Amino acid sequence: MGLRELKKQQMRERIGDTAWRLFAERGFDRVTVVEVARAAQVSEATVFNYFPTKEDLFYSRFEALGEQLVEAVRTRPPGESALAAFRRRLLATSGLLARVEAGDTTALTRLRTVNRMIADSPALQSREQRALTACVDALCGALAAESAAPDDDVMARVAADALFGVHRALIAHVRRRVLSDEEPARLATEVRQLAERAFELLEDGLRDYGVGRRS
Question: Is residue 75 located within the same domain as residue 49?
Fold first, then answer.
């Protein structure tokens, strides 16, 4: 990555992180793009250059993780399956869940605020589904590009849907748990265990998919 690209990436992350912090503290509807720009110390036009809509700002972290999952599969070492690479990257993610498990009550409040915003907003739910679909499409393209087999576009779609299906199911589980009345003190451990079980469920079918296809 060149210096210019690195600076653009850093600026995008800075704006996205600032917006996400404000959304988590005050709620999606109570934060304006102008306020995000002011907090990030950039112009409003700069924010819109990186994020065309306010919903794009909200999902910047979510989409970054999706891109990282796809990249983990795309750059996996020879001999590693697509499933193993996807699982390795997903299980390396902790974020707010790890802080909640460590007893950080502020992290739990933010986690609940963010998920309540999504649960209460059809627009955000729709944007989340579009983001997931884009991630599946990207992973499907990466997998299909590895082979010239006539039916590989179909197999790649099946594999991409299955792998991101685990991610989607875990997101839904976390949302249900943090919005309930119970205290999810061990939610990070619970999610990791559920992820392991989910990947085990897929493993017989996908264990050898993509092995030996990258040189």
Answer: no
- Same domain, residue pair 40 and 112: no
Same domain, 88 and 157: yes
Measure the CA–CA gap between 180 and 209, rounded to whole angstroms. Answer: 38
Radius of gyration (C-alpha) of the chain in whole angstroms: 18
What's the number of domains the chain is made of?
2
Q: Read out DSSP for 122-191?
A: HHHHHHHHHHHHHHHHHHHHHHHTT---TTHHHHHHHHHHHHHHHHHHHHHHHHHHHTSSS--TTHHHHH
Can you tell me the distance from the alpha carbon of 127 to that of 104, in angstroms, rounded to the nearest whole number? 29
In a domain, residue 214? The reply is no
**For residue 18, how many other CB atoms are within 10 A of its CB?**
21
Is residue 202 domain-shared with residue 131, that is, in the same domain? yes
Q: What is the CATH number of the domain that holds 41?
A: 1.10.10.60
Is there a single domain that holds both residue 180 and residue 94? yes
Structure tokens at 183: 């205290």
Which DSSP category does 94 fall into? -
pLDDT per residue as tens digits for the range 139-198: 999 999 887 666 678 889 999 999 999 999 999 999 999 888 677 778 888 999 999 999
pLDDT in tens, 24-78: 888 888 899 999 999 999 999 999 999 998 888 888 888 889 999 999 999 999 8
Global pTM? 0.83
Residue 169 CB-half CA count within 13 A = 14
